[in-house]
Each structure stands twice: as C-alpha cells, then as structure tokens.
C-alpha cells in the first residue's frame, strides 16, 4: 500500500468510544452536540488534568468524529450503509463495521492492519519493531509514524483482535470472527479497495486481504456482490473475477486522496 501522505489515526482508540460516537450520530445529535458529549465522556479517560490545547482527548475526539460523523463526501454512501449495519446487525458484528469504516477513512490504519496481517500469516507472533520497520520503509523515518503505529497496535489489543504474548514485546493474533452477512462482506471488500492505492484487484485476493486479518470470509458469491452498486465486477481470463470500485466511486475517492 502506497500513496499515504497523512497519518491521522495517531491515538489509542477504544472500540466502545467508536460505538458511542456512532450511536450519538444515529440518535440525531449534531456534530457540536456529539463533540460536547464526547468531551464529557472522555474527561476521566484521556488528558486527565491536562491543559494542552490539542491534548490526547481532543485528538481522539477528532478521530472519532471523522470516522462516524464528519466523513469525507466521497464516503457518504459507504458511511450510510455502515450506519445501517450498526442499527440492524447484532453487536458481535459491529467490530467488522467499525473496522471497515476506520480503514476507509484512515488508510494509515489500514496499512498497519495490512502489515500485521502479513506477519500473522508468516509466523505465530511479531514485535512492534517489525511493524514499525515495515511502515518506515514506506513512509520514512519519522517518529510520528513509529508512535502512531504503536498506538494502533494498542487499539488492536483493546479491540480484541490482537493479544500480547507471553514473550515481552510480542503480539499474537486472536481467532478471527467469521463474517457471513452478504452485504457486510461486500462492504468490507469495498473498504479494502477504498483504503488501497489501487481501486481494483482480483476478488479472491481482495476478499482475503491481510488488512482484514481479524475476520474470516469463507466464500464470496459474485452475484451477491452485485447488490452493492458501488462495486463493479468483470471476468478476466477463464476463471479470475476482478472487483473494482464503480466509476463514480473511483472518481470521488481519487479526489479525496488528492487533497
């Protein structure tokens, strides 16, 4: 994954904070009302006693709002469907929804997830240093990159998709959750394409993308994916299905990445 110019996701974010933010938005609250509610909610959790103008609490709220409240225009339809999933699907499926939305909004988050997924497939455990080295190779030797990667791994632990192993400084993957809801599968595939530098790929490789390491997608039916109008499918060769963002969706995602 290349072409990432901004980190954005630079704080440890708990899953329940994302859930609360989305619920506040679904309840009809304005952005300002949600921000005020989050300030109160996180008062005893982040920047306790701090006086910095842009402390950890303010940065975390910015992340939460961008994921579920003030999303880029290019993601409006994707965001709307994500909210529908949160309203209708059982709580155990919400992790996949928050994961997909965060990947779409923050490609850096998806990049870290991709590196974690690749390492988990290669070996039983990995270290923070291994992830940081891979990210630095792509984005340069910036301390902000290393720090943000560390906080994203901490978020992964909080979300239950990673656990710290018995060996100090090492991480291991947890058992992936099986995703069976047809439209959610298509939506997760869309999130991979949105967060990637490429807006197309073989259906098999995208459905099994390393960035989706917390989830198991057993099979993908091409006809089921056709229900998502933001995706296009075509056959390449004799037996390879190619999935891509629909033309209008590609144009809008391209515009947002250029900003």
Topology of this structure?
Elements: H1 15-26, H2 31-41, H3 56-68, H4 76-88, H5 94-105, H6 107-122, E1 125-127, H7 128-139, H8 143-159, E2 162-164, E3 170-173, E4 177-178, H9 182-195, E5 200-202, H10 203-207, E6 215-216, H11 222-225, E7 231-236, E8 240-245, H12 247-258
Parallel strand pairs: 4-6
Antiparallel strand pairs: 1-3, 2-3, 5-8, 7-8
Helix pairs in contact: 1-3, 2-3, 4-5, 4-9, 5-6, 5-9, 7-8
What is the H/E string? HHHHHHEHHEEEHEHEHEEH
Rg from C-alpha positions? 18 Å
Query: Which CATH C-level class of one domain is it?
Result: Mainly Alpha
Q: What is the correct CATH architecture of one domain?
A: Orthogonal Bundle
Distance between the termini: 18 Å
Task: Report on the architecture of this protein.
The protein has 259 residues and is mainly α. It has a domain at 177-258: Arc Repressor Mutant, subunit A, CATH 1.10.10. The protein contains 12 helices and 8 strands. It has helices at residues 15-26, 31-41, 56-68, 76-88, 94-105, 107-122, 128-139, 143-159, 182-195, 203-207, 222-225, 247-258, and strands spanning 125-127, 162-164, 170-173, 177-178, 200-202, 215-216, 231-236, 240-245. The chain has a 3-stranded antiparallel β-sheet with strand order 1-3-2. A 3-stranded antiparallel β-sheet has the order 5-8-7. It starts with 14 loop residues before the first helix and ends with a helix. 37% of the residues are buried. Mean pLDDT is 89; it is low at 255-259.
